């Protein structure tokens, strides 16, 4: 059964696990349905589980005291979500909201600890997964802090293209409807400033819209604006 599941289930940020270790995760999971609008966990909840997204989408957010929401990550099929700290009792620093009806495999901390202790090759794969998360966080903060809001926006568009992009000739269609509000929450800017920056990029012929979805026409221009370091796609994602 687990071998069949390893073939049919997607492998997003869990592609660093070998097939054998991925199967170990699968047999440990307890499947649960999460309707749109529910939460896997809230900021401040005890961190004692990991979540594998079999179907659907989840966004990870951080809220300010004023109620402003910053979208840090968007997870989809094949991604494992959670605060990777199997050895110490901690609380979640973020909130995970389900934005599409989802099927999720829940992995208990105690089961994860057993696999890490029993299988050294699993422990190595788990460290790789943690390393990918650390690099993703570092590059996101670099984008947000170093090159201003235009750089953060261009980096976010590149990340969206790597996550949801479809090649259409020389253009890249971001095959998800992303609102200006979503973009503003992803880079910590106002909706009005995102409108202006997108308008400037359209005037420069760097992007256009097709049925409400963003089409990137000049990827090199976006890379120049955000001083892109050409990170691999598992790091340069939303």
Automatic annotation (TrEMBL):
Domain HTH crp-type: 147-220
Start and end residues of each Cyclic nucleotide-binding domain: 17-116
Keywords, sorted A to Z: Activator, DNA-binding, Transcription, Transcription regulation
Stretches of the chain forming a coiled coil according to its record: none
Signal peptide start and end residues: none
Record-level GO cellular component terms: cytosol
Family matches, as InterPro entries: cNMP-bd_dom, cNMP-bd_dom_sf, Env_Response_Regulators, HTH_CRP, RmlC-like_jellyroll, WH-like_DNA-bd_sf, WH_DNA-bd_sf
Domain of life where this protein originates: Bacteria
Entry's Gene Ontology molecular function annotations: DNA binding; DNA-binding transcription factor activity
Protein name: Anaerobic regulatory protein
Species: Paenibacillus antibioticophila
Gene it is expressed from: fnr
């Amino acid at each position: 059964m687990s071998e069949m599941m390893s073939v049919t289930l997607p492998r997003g940020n869990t592609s660093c696990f070998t097939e054998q270790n991925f199967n170990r995760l699968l047999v440990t999971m307890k499947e649960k349905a999460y309707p749109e609008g529910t939460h896997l966990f809230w900021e401040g909840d005890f961190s004692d589980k990991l979540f594998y997204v079999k179907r659907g989408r989840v966004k990870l957010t951080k809220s300010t005291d004023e109620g402003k929401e910053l979208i840090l990550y968007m997870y989809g099929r094949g991604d494992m979500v959670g605060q990777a700290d199997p050895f110490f009792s901690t609380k979640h620093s973020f909130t995970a909201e389900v934005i599409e009806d989802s099927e999720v495999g829940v992995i208990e901390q105690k089961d994860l600890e057993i696999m890490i202790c029993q299988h050294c090759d699993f422990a190595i794969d788990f460290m790789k997964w943690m390393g990918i998360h650390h690099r993703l966080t570092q590059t996101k903060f670099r984008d947000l802090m170093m090159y201003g809001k235009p750089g953060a926006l261009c980096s976010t568009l590149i990340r969206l293209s790597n996550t949801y992009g479809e090649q259409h000739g020389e253009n890249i269609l971001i095959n998800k409807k992303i609102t200006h509000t979503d973009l503003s929450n992803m880079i910590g800017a106002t909706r009005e400033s995102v409108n202006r920056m997108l308008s400037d990029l359209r005037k420069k012929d760097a992007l256009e819209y097709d049925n409400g979805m963003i089409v990137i026409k000049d990827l090199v221009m976006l890379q120049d604006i955000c001083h892109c370091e050409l990170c691999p796609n598992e790091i340069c994602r939303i």
